[in-house]
Amino acid sequence: MDSRFGTIERSVGPNGSQLRPIRVMIIDDSLIARTVLARILDEAEGFEIVAKASSAELALAELGSLSVDVILLDLEMPGMGGMQALPKILAMAKSARVLVVSTLTEVGAKHTIAALQMGAADTMLKPRSGGFDQAYRATLLAKIQALCPNLSAADSRVGAPQAARPALAPKQLSASKSPRLLAIGASTGGIHALCILLRTLPREFDLPILVTQHLPESFIPVFARQLEAASGRTALVGGDRTPIEKGQIIVAPGDGHLLVHERNGKLVTGIGHFPVPNGCRPSVDPMFETMAETTDGRALGVVLSGMGRDGVEGAAKLVAAGGSILVQDEASSAVWGMPRAIAEAGLASAILPPAELATRIANHAKAAAWK
Predict the structure, then answer these.
(1) Any catalytic annotation for residue 214?
(2) 40 FRET partner, CA 20 to 30 A, in 21, 183, 191, 344?
């Protein structure tokens, strides 16, 4: 289809296929980018390109008649552009996950963080000419698969029975110790959830807040400013011996773990560059572990949307010390990996969407303060 806004191409999956592929829509004004991204998906099993649009306007016109799981969205396009179109795309394709694939993910961290805050699930650099190598291909496919964990080639046969999940019974929130601080860990999809949680926390909640979010190092200063705007609290990037103050948010740097130490009776941050079993840096586990030791369990931990198991080891140590862990629920998570690992380990005191987590945190801190 041709119009003044560009072109759109529809694709139809093979008839009679027994696999339920991940349905992907590509929105990019570059013919080269659309062609290369489509080729990567066409050559892999378990993916179906349902449409390729050269503009946001055309994509929006077609979304109402398409069934889409993942949308690859360029931010920098003529006309409406990806940033302006993103809220409309999210509203129209409610069940779809948006993966921002743009050069702005490298040189315009502000735009990328804003897109993630609005609800884009993840981000990936669109390399310059010649950059679509095998490593890029593998990373792109892994990110798309992570956004659709129930639609992998191994378990997505139509009508195939789904493995029963264990019943998740939340633990009681520990009421014996008044918390000294709140620590939050997140990854894919976590920025959107984190901003909702911070906006919902009442102003009278003044416990220090530590944040470990999986992001490239260059994004972290912009991320801290976004959290400051969303929360109305001072936010800064943690360093060695940064004082942990009430009413303040401290963010882990992109190249190191955020640690909690005590010096002269006061809590301060430390930065660790050591490897951890889950391979993440920064990792949620060291933050929870050092917080458990330093505060003697007088702390709350929260784990939001993200792939993998980062946080579960640290959560176990925090709970053993007398602290509590709350996690985001599956329905509101872009990827229910990190929260699920903690819930299935029996460590979660609450499994709720972000706004309800904020209410539970505030109520618990208020109740504990009166004990």
Answers:
(1) yes
(2) 191
Q: In which region does residue 133 sit, left (phi positive, over 0), alpha (psi from -120 to 50) or beta (all else)?
A: beta
Say whether both 259 and 197 belong to one domain. yes
Report the C-alpha gap between 135 and 2 in whole angstroms: 34
Rounded to whole angstroms, the Cα distance separating 361 from 339 reads 16
Same domain membership, residue 243 and residue 145 = no
323 and 259 inside one domain: yes
In a domain, 173, yes or no: no
Q: Out of 192, 214, 257, 364, which one is annotated catalytic?
A: 214
160: in domain:
no
Do 216 and 356 belong together in one domain? yes
Give me the number of domains the chain comprises: 2
This prediction has a pTM of: 0.88
Q: Decide which of 133, 151, 169 is a domain's last residue.
A: 151
Say if residue 135 is in the same domain as residue 89: yes
Catalytic residue among 122, 285, 310, 329: 310
- 217 and 357 inside one domain: yes
Q: Catalytic residue at 187?
A: yes
pLDDT per residue, tens digit, the chain (371 aa), is 444 446 656 554 444 444 589 999 999 999 999 999 999 999 999 999 999 999 999 999 999 899 999 999 999 899 999 999 999 999 998 889 999 998 777 667 888 999 999 999 999 888 776 678 899 999 999 999 999 987 754 443 333 344 445 556 677 676 557 899 999 999 999 999 999 999 999 999 999 999 999 998 989 999 999 999 999 999 999 999 999 999 999 999 999 999 999 999 999 999 999 999 999 999 999 999 999 999 999 999 999 999 999 999 999 999 999 999 999 999 999 999 999 999 999 999 999 999 999 999 999 888 766 55
How buried is 229 (Cβ within 10 angstroms: 0-12 exposed, 13-18 middle, 19+ buried)?
middle
Structural domain including 205 reads: 181-369
Q: Looking at the structure, do residues 222 and 340 belong to the same domain, yes or no?
A: yes
